[in-house]
Amino acid sequence: MRRRTPEVRTKRRIPLRKRLLVRLLFVSVLIASCSVAATAWLAVTTTTSALKEEQGQDLAADNSILARLSGYAATHADWSDVGHTVRALAAKTGRRIALTTADRTLVADSAPRGTPLPPRSAATVDPLRTDTYTESGAQLSGIDPRAVGPYRITARERAELDKLARTRKQCYARFGLQATIVRAPSGRPVVPRPDGAEASGHVAAQCEDGRLNTPTPTEQKALDTLSAGARPCLRRAGLDRGAPVFLTFDPTGNTPLGGGYPIAQYAKLGGTAAGRTVQTCVLGARRTQLEPYVAPVAELFLGIGDRNPSRFDMSPANKAKVIGAAGLVLAVTVAVTAVVAIRLVRPLRALTEAAQQPPERHVRVPVTTRDETGILAEAFNGLAERRERLEAQRKAMVSDIAHELRSPLTNIRGWLEVVRDGVVEPDPSLLDSLHEEALVLQRIIDDLQDLAAADAGTLRLHRERLRAGDLLDQVADAHRVAAKAAGVALRTEADATAWLDADPVRMRQALGNLVSNALRHTPADGTVTLAARRDGPDVVLTVTDTGTGIAPEDLPHVFDRFWRAEKSRSRRTGGSGLGLPIVRHLVAGHGGTAEAGSRPGGGAVLTLRLPAAGPPADATCPSPVPGAHQGYSGPAAQ
């Protein structure tokens, strides 16, 4: 038998315009273009309230609404009474105002019940993180000064501070400086330093005695609570050594600032990483302290009056245009999609119907296109053809196995029956003949067992380091008698640097099958040559004969089981058809490949290419093949 060469399939290139992906993309682009064109036309020819909203928004009014609601949130613990404020702001600004929680639960809305909200919120109302009070029209990061919570002073404390503020103002007046009293959100009076006081240290020393900025008992209690709240954060940052955390006030209002430990080190920490850490800890503690006193975070939605900005405000003519355009786009989309779907589904339906036919019919499908579906149909037909061929090979294999087993069994049975009947005496020549027939049966069964083990992946290899030349000598010695009987010269040629890491028994089996195959196809006075050479990282083993060679049309089939170029079943040239398939599996198990070809002028060349191995450290001279006589009994009848 001759080994089938690997079938090379070139990847078929589909023209770009025929590719299914390109066609689907083209359809999608067409549909999208129609939709975009219709949308653009509608946007140009109709007026929507959403467009009016984008063009007519009053940023100043929006900021004033946000500032007013932030002030409400800073001075109230919840939103329960915000409805009156929302409606008053909506009436004043002409805007639709809605407040919701973070999960879009409605809190208050100036629009009638059931009116959809605008698609996006305009701002987030959170007095603990957004300051809309310090700078008008801006949203600063920080706590809104109006969120005073426990820092709001009592009426008695306010009266005392008012008296100190008037005293400071009168002091400034004696030096000709005009000062004003400003009321902070906590109720504390603040007297900003007038112009000219900075240049005169004497004025500051006379008028600014510090009593006005001293925390009241209410403020001190809140500051102590704040200091205790900031301590865990400072401790985690390594800035707390047990000393109290001192806090001061912003001179313009009741805004606590982070201090240090002790107070003398605060100036040193300012602007440093430690100072920034102190500020962060105090800010976080203050937010936690004020959280019970402010309203929860809310989302602010703004619109135009009580109209839904997402609804078209159109005349009957424009409504008709919208309906007509939408219907046209839908009709075009359905028509194009239907045409494409029908063209795609038709060959797929044919494939489905063919696949549902009985297996023994081996149905083919017509190839009507040259795109992916056409290639799929060709692949299906190729699969059906291979399936039909494999079915024929299976039937032929069963017939061949039956024939190969029947012949020796018939001989054995016939001779045993005539011996039992006393017709023939069981002389040594008869026993030798029966033994030879039993060996034939054993070899066929062993070959089938080897193929089954290879197919199941259970073929075990016992690798050893061996010289390729010694391996060829062992195989040649095992076939000398058969070669001499056939009148064929058997020669070996080996490169001393060719070493293998392989199972010696299995490699002798593979080479023995090739040599037996070559001897059957080589006429008398011919030559069979075994050669080994090193080729880079591989060792190449070849078995070359001077026989009739292999026809080009037979090369793809030489490794098929029970296949023979000559259909004769004689023991001279027929064989069982299992030798070369076993060779292919044995070589593949070693990580190698096998090839078959013909030489110009006649003769066949079977080549085994295996990974090479380096010689052992003590490999100074040729040595016998390891395991030379373990489990190998000479050539197998193929």
Oligomer: single chain
Rg computed from alpha carbons, rounded to a whole number of angstroms: 50 Å
State the end-to-end CA separation: 9 Å
Overall average residue pLDDT: 77
Provide the low-confidence segments as ranges.
1-10, 251-268, 306-312, 569-574, 621-638
Strand content: 5-15%
Tell me what you see in this structure:
The chain is α+β, with helices and mostly antiparallel strands. Among the domains are: 53-147 and 295-304; 148-293, no CATH class; 447-611, Histidine kinase-like ATPase, C-terminal domain (Heat Shock Protein 90). Helices cover 46% and strands 12% of the residues. It has 16 helices and 17 strands. It has helices spanning 20-45, 49-56, 59-75, 82-93, 155-174, 201-207, 217-236, 266-269, 273-290, 316-355, 372-420, 428-456, 468-478, 480-486, 504-520, 579-589, and strands at residues 95-100, 106-109, 123-125, 130-131, 140-141, 182-183, 189-190, 248-249, 256-257, 298-304, 464-467, 489-494, 499-502, 527-535, 538-545, 593-598, 604-611. It has a five-stranded mixed β-sheet with strand order 12-14-15-17-16. Strand 8 and strand 9 form a beta hairpin. Helix 1 (20-45) runs antiparallel to helix 10. The longest helix is centred in the middle third of the chain and has 49 residues, at 372-420. It starts with 19 loop residues before the first helix and ends in a 27-residue tail after the last strand. 27% of the residues are buried. Mean pLDDT is 77; it is low at 1-10, 251-268, 306-312, 569-574 and 621-638.
